[in-house]
Amino acid sequence: MAQTARSTQAAQGVGAARASGATGAKAGRRRRPLSPGRVLAWVAMVVILLVTLFPFYWILRTALSSNAALYVDPTSPGPVGFGWGAFARVFGMQSVEEAIAEGGSGASIDFWLYLRNSVVVATVVTVCQVFFSAMAAYAFSRLRWRGRDAVFSLFLLSLMVPTIFTLLPNFLLVRQLGLIDTLLGIMLPGLFMTPFAIFFLRQFLANIATEVEEAALIDGASKVRVFFNLALPMTVGPIATISILTYIGSWNDYFWPLMVSYTDESRVLTVALGNFNAQTPQTGPDWAGLMAATLVAALPMLVLFMAFARRVVSSIGFSGIK
Amino acid sequence: MTTTAPPTGARRRRRDDTRLALAFIAPATLGLLVFYFWPLLRGVWLSFTSWDVLTPARFVGVENYVEMIGDPVFWNAVRVTALYVVINIGVQTVVALLIAVLMQRLSRSILLRSLILTPYLVSNVVAALVFLWILDFQLGIGNNALEWLGLDRIGFFTSETWVIPTIALVNVWRHMGYTALLIFAGLLTIPPTMYEAARVDGASEVRSFFSITMPLLRPILGLVLIVSVIGSFQVFDTVAVTTNGGPVDASRVLQLYIYEKAFAQFDFGYASALSVALLLMLMVVTFLQYRITRAGQTDLS
What we know:
Radius of gyration of chain B: 25 Å
CATH superfamily of the largest domain in chain B: MetI-like
Oligomer: heterodimer
Largest sheet of chain B: 2 strands, antiparallel
Distance between the termini of chain A: 39 Å
Number of domains of chain B: 2
CATH class of the largest domain in chain B: Mainly Alpha
Distance between the termini of chain B: 31 Å
Structural class of chain A: mainly alpha
């Protein structure tokens, strides 16, 4: 069937070339295997990749080194004075004396706690935000009600409010609610929706075939059941994409948690990392410990991304502008 | 919808969707009103008050704005932020465009695109710390490399001349892959036939870049620019982690100044006036960009 489709298009000429653009490009590549231009382009690409990836290698190399060795030999390409001391320090598994001897500040840090806080915040925010956004997106795409478009344009309007402008008043509100220095205070503004998630999911929900929905309704299903048993399962792909993007965004947020959190109880990884840097001895920073902490903060997102790379990468289109 | 006449039962259900819809949008609407619109109004109101949080807010009219116009630190922050945005956006757009065109020409591999996107997955704090280490004056591999090349070491985060370009480039590192993927998605909308036609006519790669790619990419590039400029103006994390505004005021960007006014000096009225100023700047810049790039209008026809 694909073949017939192609031959019909071949008759139309232009259409065929457009549809088989990918194969055309591949054929072109085979025809001109290594023109100087292509070599130059690949060299540029490799340089860009090196610049992109080198810092990650350098984090790992430094985290597995010891501070004393780093001060003697800062440039060796592999770890110097190999050891896991930096990670032990980060997870609070070294005594104060040990930590100071290895170049740490000796201040109490426990990344397990911050890691837990980050996981709680990112998970709860993602689950609530995506679920509530999906509900709203469903109402804006599949339900019929007066004022639908007007209300939707209000939501679109909020896309244009820059974050900075809402941060200060939101801080005051969270303070009035007595939620300063709590995880709930950090999560609250993100729990209900983001205009972007609604906008994003609405596009996909609108594409569900009407016939499928009609059939379920004829069978006596309520619209609520259609939402849970039909609409949500049918948009599981886009929901996964927006969930991952939300999770990463929430995990990496720094400014807002910095405002709200004051003690270890509510400290998330990004804020803890900033603190760790501020506490490190100014005369001889604990670089090994800092890089180990950086790795601990970054690794979960890298792993999460690796698991879903294909989905995320191919969904970043210009509809994915945030 | 119009293909089959729905039975009366379904039609009746459809008519009372309003109540269900209200229930479905209730949580989102709560979020919209409480965390978007209310703060917007409250922020504007606070900018006309004097408030240290402990005593009740006092209406002072335009006093904060008058003070702002005479505040050299504010004007310095505007200058520093503008410099940051120009370097950050200038370099980032050129590099991202280059990456996107290279990907369009060389490979569409998912692996390549994932690797390019990697820096975007880590937080600004992580990016800031890594480069603080790489560019450290004594021990950083960057400065050691400069020495090997026979150049002088540079105090990237400690010299007044270098601090803003450095921070701008650190953020280019984090965002260039993401921006490249956005532009790449735009490139995919250009029909390959156009390039084939150009090749048949004997046009060079460079020629087709300037006479096909750029004009057809303009609307998307315009949107990408608008979004990244808005983000760029709100720089905070990297500065707060690496320099905290120093040396002296050389990297005291607007957001950092707002944060300090509110949380170190408890001058919420003045901090709100500063954020209104930032908001107005963003609106003007966005409007101008929209007009200049004619974003959203396509030439693809």
